[in-house]
Amino acid sequence: MSDGLVVVDKPGGLTSHDVVARVRRLAGTRKVGHAGTLDPMATGVLVLGTGRATRLLGHLMLTEKAYDATIRLGVSTVTDDAEGDVLTVAPVDGIDEEQVREALARFVGDIEQVPTAVSAVKVDGKRSYQRVREGEEVALEARPVTIHELTVGAVRRSSGEGPASVDVDVALRCSSGTYVRAIARDLGAALGVGGHLTALRRTAVGPYRLPDARTLDQLAEQFSVMPLADAARAAFPSYDLDAEQAQAVRYGRPLPLELDILTAVFAPDGEFLALYAPRDGAARAVAVFVG
């Protein structure tokens, strides 16, 4: 079993924990963790770590994520997505594309967002979604998130069975902690017709993108990981040490380096050694990955 990252293209219908269980079997180890979950309905980039890389997951700078999504206007649901029971149905005859684009433009930037009620946010020690499933009404507090970019694609009217609706394709880059379902809900509320998410595909988590990802079927045919050194160089600023400095790192000693932020340090042969950060006038070890 190799230490490294596995960037999975998660299929719909599986929980993130289901994917972890699959990768544990494929990797032949229980030492597999994930860096943030995806809802069962969602597909796309899910970052896992195996072996020593599980210790790296908590330090990864996965502060920006990207998604492709489809929002349905005219119908709201309990879960703010297609998996929940319908709450309201409203006519969308008066909704046009210009209104949709103008309303979505107001979501770009630093905003206050109320997480969806069926989120994993804890309320008095219990997950919000658990309280909802038990029949409780949950009112979560708004929290700051950032929508760096939101691009509106096709805006089209439904032509199939069921209530008339308007579907809106969007692509967005946002801060970690943003709920795309909540954007669908809030867009519907702003237009007075309700809304929910019908499709969600995560296209990037930090530096790891869909071209880096492999399906579970591909991993079953040939299991491999992104080596720890490659994963660290992709996610952090890097610093290449000389032999004497590398030896000091193996003992977790401070280094006389001027670092600005958390930095991955490497031995002369390219081996990833540790994460160091500036503190008290020196570079000090945050996590050492070698003995």
TrEMBL record:
InterPro entries: PsdUridine_synth_cat_dom_sf, PsdUridine_synth_N, PUA-like_sf, PUA_sf, tRNA_psdUridine_synth_fam2_C, tRNA_psdUridine_synth_TruB, TruB_C
Keywords on record: Isomerase, tRNA processing
Name of a matching Pfam family: TruB_N
UniProt EC number: 5.4.99.25
Residues at the active site: D39 (nucleophile)
Domain tRNA pseudouridylate synthase B C-terminal: 181-222
Positions of the tRNA pseudouridine synthase II TruB subfamily 2 C-terminal domain: 236-289
UniProt enzyme class: isomerase
Keyword field contains tRNA processing: yes
Single Gene Ontology MF annotation: tRNA pseudouridine(55) synthase activity
UniProt KW Isomerase keyword: yes
CDD domains xref list: PseudoU_synth_EcTruB
Domain Pseudouridine synthase II N-terminal as annotated: residue spans: 24-180
Catalyzed chemical reaction(s): uridine(55) in tRNA = pseudouridine(55) in tRNA
Similarity section: Belongs to the pseudouridine synthase TruB family. Type 1 subfamily.
NCBIfam families (UniProt xref): TruB
Stated role: Responsible for synthesis of pseudouridine from uracil-55 in the psi GC loop of transfer RNAs.
HAMAP family attached to this UniProt entry: TruB_bact (MF_01080)
Protein name as it appears in the record: tRNA pseudouridine synthase B
Species of origin: Nocardioides bizhenqiangii
High-level lineage: Bacteria, Bacillati, Actinomycetota, Actinomycetes, Propionibacteriales
